[in-house]
Amino acid sequence: MNDLKDTLQVGLANGLIDIDDAIDIREVRNLKTANQLLKLAKRKKFEREQQANQANIQAQAEANQQNQQMAAQMEMQKSQVIAQSEKDLEGYKAGLASKALIEEVELKKELMALEFEFALKLKAAETMPNARDDFQEGRKDQRELLKENNKREMHKEKMSASKFESSGNDTTRSGVGLGNHGPR
To answer: What DSSP line would sit under 136-168, residue for residue?
Structure first.
């Protein structure tokens, strides 16, 4: 019996059997039956531990699978967020490019209007000297006409003055002399 007690102590110390099994085995008075119960208790404890290990392994596998699924789901969500961000960024870039094109068109319109205005002013400036020259030519023509008219007038006056000269009958009868009225 002391051997049985020692075996039970070693089994408990090494964790091969539970205390409940040790108590039950001590109650058995037959050594052969007690040894068989000890073997049976040891096998049952081993099977329970193996089942617990299997359950832990299964739980760990399930937890790993859930973690992998969550990681895959997070990766998918991350990819979706990145794709959406890239899409939004492309849309923003396209909007900026469109806005830049619109601004460029507006600036080109303003530039064209300014160029047109300058071209008109340049054309007016180019025609302005011609108008001035034409005006000067017109004034010159008018002066020449005026000179010509003045010459004709002078010629007419000369002609009329030569008709006005005395024919010798312009003596005064009253004897008024011009001698007292000379130059001073």
So the answer is: HHHHHHHHHHHHHHHHHHHHHHHHHHHHHS--S
pLDDT in tens, 94-131: 999 999 999 999 999 999 999 999 898 888 877 766 66
Neighbours of 17 (CB within 10 A): 25
CA distance 1 to 39: 16
Candidates 45, 43, 3, 5; CA nearest to 27 is 5
DSSP letters along 46-100, please?
HHHHHHHHHHHHHHHHHHHHHHHHHHHHHHHHHHHHHHHHHHHHHHHHHHHHHHH
pTM of the model: 0.40
